[in-house]
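Many introductory courses stop at the sequence. We go one step further.
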Amino acid sequence: MSRRPPPPPMPFDDEATSHRIGTLALAFCVGSAAALMAMHATRARAQPAGPADGAPLMRAPLQVVAPVDFKRYAGLWHEQARLPNRFQKECAGPVTAEYTPLPNGHIQVRNRCVLEDGRIDEVVGEARPVPVPGLPGAGRLEVRFAPSWLGWLPLVWGDYWVLKLDREYQVALVGTPDRKFLWVLSRVPHLSEGALQAELEYARTLGFDVDRVVRSAPGAGG
């Protein structure tokens, strides 16, 4: 029995083959692009809202009162409210700050507070003015409570910024540029509720978390 000869090979159609390869390549590219878009969309949904949603990258820098006459600012101040801080966590009664000008242009700072057992806790430090270009007499101070021989170390000085001060030097709002510390001070032992709320609301507009403030215990006459 004789074998049949094999069929002749199919002719190679260059145009048809190129068309099929192009179609497959296009489908692969479209599919990959769609997969990448879906992956990016999933990641975007999983990420928390950021500046693209309107949140600012950072708050505006704080401005200080200028000029401040620190000779008028000197004297006794009564704390009315403060943001909680580790330095005053033992203070349970009235808190006062007394400022006394020194011959070298600095200011002596004497802070007192009444502890829960009735004892007086007192700490004495020194404040120095910080020059601000274009703002002569700006209400910026640096305060040190460490020993004077450590005064050359930058880390022992803390910021003290006068953020609001009435014309009569009777009420002052003091804070730090990082907004972690805030104090409302008054010449009288007990400030009226309306006046205190006005100071706190102003501090809120500056970005301070006034919902966390601690009301100071009124002093004598409060």
